[in-house]
Amino acid sequence: MAVTTTVDQAAPDLVRVRNLFVNLYLSGTKDGWVLVDAGLQGSAGAIVEAAEERFGAGTSPRAIILTHGHFDHVGAFPELFETWDVPVYAHPRELPHLTGQADYPPPDPTVGKGAMALLSFAYPAKAIDLGQRVRALPEDGGVPEMPGWRWIHTPGHTAGHVCLFREDDRCLIAGDAFVTVEQESLYAVLRQEQEVHGPPAYFTPDWAAAKRSVEALAALRPAIAATGHGTPMAGEALTRGLAALVANFDAIAVPDHGRYVADDPQP
């Protein structure tokens, strides 16, 4: 089944491809580019089409980088490999979920805040198996085929979640470490009004780590944030939003109750 897709510019050399409610990114130029994340199931054709419109017919990425492996960031696999035979890179702690060895913690539909959260009981948490194509990001922090970028380990939403940061223009590909829409709310997702929020609550099992990750990202003072959900943000609105999220993380991001909330009596 085809997935509704829109394409727009996040930065001069960074294109956002939006699949329904999740973003992936094409980073680079015709001389060499990388795919960051792989969207929803059924999106492979739309991803290839967006890449060919941007970089030319028959183009292929030099690599695919995953911020993490949740179903809405890896859905185009394995179909995508029918067109592109390229390596896939992720944090070492994410590899068990990408090699069929370990499922993710189950989503928590009890966190409230809207229909996207309520429906999360149906979101897949099963591991996928990318076989020999998937490998660990280099230990030195460099991002394969993305000169000028470095990866930053930002656990919380998943144990091996990473963000990508470029110092030259302070551009941040944030994955789901924080997002720019209240992702738990279907109403907010449909409206796509820009607001800095914590990671999607229904799929975040470690809130203490998530808070530390947001603090570390805010300290980078990003000028542009290309997030996994919501519209990319820039400038003063981003700075203010991140500062508010850091100062009020527990109130803004952490659910009042839920499977992964400290001191909640749920099993």
CATH homology superfamily name: Ribonuclease Z/Hydroxyacylglutathione hydrolase-like
Determine Rg (CA atoms, Å): 17 Å
CATH architecture: 4-Layer Sandwich
**CATH fold-type name:** Metallo-beta-lactamase, Chain A
Tell me the series of helices and strands, N- to C-terminal. EEEEHEHEHHEEEEHHEEHH
Instruction: Report the top-level CATH class.
Output: Alpha Beta
Mean pLDDT, to the nearest integer, reads 94
Number of strands: 12
Our count of domains comes out at 1
What fraction of residues sit in β-strands? 15-25%
Order of strands, widest sheet: 1-2-3-4-5-6-7
Secondary-structure-based class equals alpha/beta
> Kindly, what is the distance between the CA atoms of the first and last residues, rounded to a whole number of angstroms?
36 Å
What is the number of helical segments per DSSP (H or I, 4+ residues)?
8
Sheet with the most strands, sense and barrel status: 7 strands, mixed
- Identify low-pLDDT runs: none
- Helical content class: 10-25%
Can you put this structure into words, describing what you see?
The protein has 267 residues and is α/β, with parallel strands linked by helices. The chain has a single domain, classed as Metallo-beta-lactamase, Chain A (4-Layer Sandwich), CATH 3.60.15. Helix content is 22%, strand content 21%. It is built from eight helices and twelve strands. The strands form two sheets. It has a seven-stranded mixed beta sheet, with helices on one face. The protein has a five-stranded mixed beta sheet with strand order 8-9-10-11-12. Strand 9 and strand 10 form a beta hairpin. Helix 6 runs antiparallel to helix 7. The chain is globular and about 50 Å long. The mean pLDDT is 94.
